[in-house]
């Protein structure tokens, strides 16, 4: 299933202010997370191999998550867009609750976007359902829209907890840029933290780095809006200032506990700089054994 995509923050105000600049833009069936004990094959007394590498931990995580029929999760995110020299950035925030099942693959998320200068503005309800790769999306009271989540515009609207595991698997299996996509493993207490961290990368190099490309896909909706407002910047001029992405597993069960990503891009504009920042945290709440039904009239 698809990964998350943003574009919450308003762009037009940023580009207008400052003489052409950018202005700051438990449901039934859910239980507490149950433990999936590491064990060998049924009836076997052979202890499983203790994972050591990032790839081994990710394989265990995928197995642990698939061992349950479904999961609940929450998402909290923020975006900001600022023009150097301006007083207030433009901000937006997003909160959502969701449920995910693996067989069949179905996802539902119900969230709210709050936007406006200084973070004070209107609220917009956003809903998404994904059934075996087809997404159904609604903003506010608009009609439902439908499309494959493989399309970037639709992928931007999906919050999928298992997609984070897939992202880290890609970093491990195809490190086109080992320095940028190196996954560090840190075990601390009852948690195992898989982490990718780097900075000062030109967006032009996104094809060589899955982690950079993921951040670029997150930024693309806002970048498209900036271009509509007359902000023209070549990929070589757009710089990822920093990125930190972490996938946290339970050290005993290997279930995913949380995912967190934070990054910022900087691009030139009329002798000044526009800075885009995003931070999103996703928490796994517990198991979900119910069914996810599409709303009436949505097929």
What do you see in this structure?
The chain has 299 residues and is α+β, with helices and mostly antiparallel strands. It has one domain: outer membrane lipoprotein receptor (LolB), chain A (Clam). The protein contains six helices and twelve strands. The protein has helices spanning 12-20, 54-66, 152-155, 161-173, 178-181, 210-228, and strands at residues 30-32, 70-83, 90-102, 105-117, 123-131, 134-139, 145-148, 184-188, 191-202, 239-250, 256-269, 272-288. Strands 1, 2, 3, 4, 5, 6, 7, 8, 9, 10, 11 and 12 form a twelve-stranded antiparallel beta sheet that branches. A hairpin with a 5-residue loop joins strand 10 and strand 11 (256-269). Residues 1-5 and 16-42 have low confidence and may be disordered.
């Amino acid at each position: 299933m698809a990964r998350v995509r943003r574009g919450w923050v308003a762009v037009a105000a940023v580009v207008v202010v400052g003489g052409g600049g950018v202005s700051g833009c438990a449901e039934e069936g859910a239980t507490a997370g149950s433990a999936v004990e590491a064990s060998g094959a049924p009836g076997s007394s052979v202890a499983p191999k203790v994972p050591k590498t990032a790839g081994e931990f990710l394989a265990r995580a995928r197995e642990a998550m698939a061992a349950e029929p479904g999961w609940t999760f929450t998402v909290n995110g923020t975006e900001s867009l600022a023009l150097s020299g301006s007083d207030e950035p433009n901000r937006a925030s997003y909160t959502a609750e969701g449920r995910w099942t693996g067989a069949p693959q179905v996802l539902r998320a119900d969230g709210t976007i709050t936007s406006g200068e200084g973070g004070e503005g209107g609220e917009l309800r956003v809903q998404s359902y994904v059934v075996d790769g087809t997404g159904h999306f609604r903003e506010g009271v608009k009609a439902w829209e439908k499309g494959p989540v493989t399309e970037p515009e639709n992928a931007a609207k999906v919050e999928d907890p298992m997609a984070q595991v897939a992202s880290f698997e890609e970093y491990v299996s195809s490190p086109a840029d080992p320095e940028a996509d190196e996954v560090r493993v840190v075990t601390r207490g009852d948690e195992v933290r898989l982490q990718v961290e780097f900075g000062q990368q030109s967006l032009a190099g996104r094809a060589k780095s899955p982690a950079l490309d993921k951040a670029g896909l997150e930024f693309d909706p806002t970048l498209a809006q900036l271009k509509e407002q007359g902000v023209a910047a070549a990929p070589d001029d757009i710089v990822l200032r920093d990125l930190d992405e972490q996938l946290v597993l339970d050290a005993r069960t290997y279930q995913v506990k949380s995912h967190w990503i934070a990054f910022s891009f900087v691009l030139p504009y009329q002798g000044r700089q526009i800075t885009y920042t995003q931070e999103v945290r996703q928490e796994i709440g517990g198991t979900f054994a119910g069914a996810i039904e599409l709303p009436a009239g949505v097929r």
